[in-house]
From TrEMBL:
Similarity remark: Belongs to the NAD(P)-dependent epimerase/dehydratase family. Dihydroflavonol-4-reductase subfamily.
Xref: Pfam families: Epimerase (PF01370)
Residue ranges constituting the NAD-dependent epimerase/dehydratase domain according to the UniProt record: 4-251
Descriptive protein name: NAD-dependent epimerase/dehydratase domain-containing protein
Organism in which the protein naturally occurs: Penicillium olsonii
Keywords, alphabetical: Oxidoreductase
GO terms assigned for molecular function: oxidoreductase activity, acting on the CH-OH group of donors, NAD or NADP as acceptor
InterPro entries: Epimerase_deHydtase, NAD(P)-bd_dom_sf, NAD(P)_dehydrat-like
The keyword Oxidoreductase is assigned to this record: yes
Length: 329
């Protein structure tokens, strides 16, 4: 039986990856920060206890954090590494972001090389942040584009996350381990939250705009959209699993996006799917800040190689709001 280690098992994307790994028949071990989180995951999958277990990794930035986690009998065949911080509550760019992101990524790659020689491929959750050039956008964004941010620029809080995403490729190039690498690069990730791991206060950063919308915080004025590309979390999760199932995915980056959106488009879709929320939504004639001239995108590699078929925005809006209502909007 094929065995997979999934890091950051209680994270937004990872929670959906767990479901797909089990559906596809993989023996799955997740890393979590605490026994409580691990038990929550097991309790939510009561019929798969023979196929699902967890190990505790309290701090991914610690030296040797993953050394014991990657040791297994029977041994692991693949590793999906999703454990990396993404939030804007940055006090110390190095301590809060760069160390966990870079040390966590290189740490697990070192551990796999040293203690898990059976691993054939590592798939890492990267980001559109590793592609985007906020100073000068290309005509079309695709996997060939790299964010040009330097370490010094990364000390700027807004740039921190972007600077942490190239470390894995550098490791593989220099260390030449037995495994190959694939990365999944999504922009803003929307979609349903899993109720057993979430409160309204602790939902992922990208979904917070949905919470604000349905709580009436945008009734008077829509918040600026910011980045205009998005993807559904379930499509991102499937991309991770496909990246270990499809041999051609090795050595590739995958720009995983469903396309454009704006907060106005989300609000309009919410009005259509949940008319009972009308009193909390912005007016129908609210200004749409979607730009007339916007960069292009090319997601064709993810469709051709991984076979992804992207969910439409309306479905994601409905399902996301439904999931927020379950945890108590």
């Amino acid at each position: 039986m094929v065995k997979v280690l999934l890091t950051g098992g209680s994270g937004f994307i990872a929670a959906h990856i767990v479901d797909i790994l089990l559906q596809h028949g993989f023996d799955t071990v997740v890393t979590v920060r605490s026994e409580e989180k691990g038990d929550q995951i097991l309790k939510a999958h009561p019929n798969t206890k023979q196929k699902l277990s967890y190990v505790i990794v309290k701090d991914v930035a610690q030296d040797g954090a993953f050394d014991e986690a990657v040791k297994s009998d029977p041994p692991f065949d693949y590793v999906l590494h999703t454990a990396s911080p993404f939030h804007f509550n940055v006090q110390d760019p190095v301590k809060d972001f760069l160390d966990p992101a870079i040390k966590g990524t290189t740490g697990i790659l070192k551990a796999i090389k040293a203690f898990a020689p059976t691993v054939k491929r590592v798939v890492i959750t990267s980001s559109f942040a590793a592609i985007v050039n906020p100073k000068k956008a290309p005509a079309v964004y695709d996997e060939k584009v790299w964010n040009p941010v330097t370490w010094e620029e990364a000390m700027d809080h807004s740039q921190v996350y972007r600077a942490s995403k190239k470390a894995a490729w550098d490791f593989v190039e220099k260390e030449k381990p037995n495994f190959d690498l694939a990365t999944i690069n999504p922009p803003l990730v929307f979609g349903p939250v899993v109720h057993y791991l979430n409160t309204l206060e602790a939902i992922n950063t990208s979904n917070q705009r949905f919470r604000s919308l349905v709580q009436g915080e945008m009734k008077e004025k829509l918040a600026p959209t910011g980045n205009f590309l998005w993807v559904d979390v379930r499509d991102v999760a499937l991309a991770h699993v496909k990246a270990i199932e499809v041999s051609e995915a090795g050595g590739e980056r995958f720009f995983v996006t469903a396309g454009y959106f704006s907060n106005k488009k989300i609000a309009d879709a919410a009005r259509e799917s949940h008319p009972d929320l009308e009193a909390k939504l912005p007016p129908t004639d609210a200004t749409d800040d979607f730009p007339a001239n916007i960069y292009g995108f090319d997601n064709s590699k993810s469709q051709k190689v991984l076979g992804l078929e992207y969910r439409p925005l309306k479905q994601t809006v409905k399902d996301t709001i439904d999931s927020l209502l379950v945890i108590g909007v």
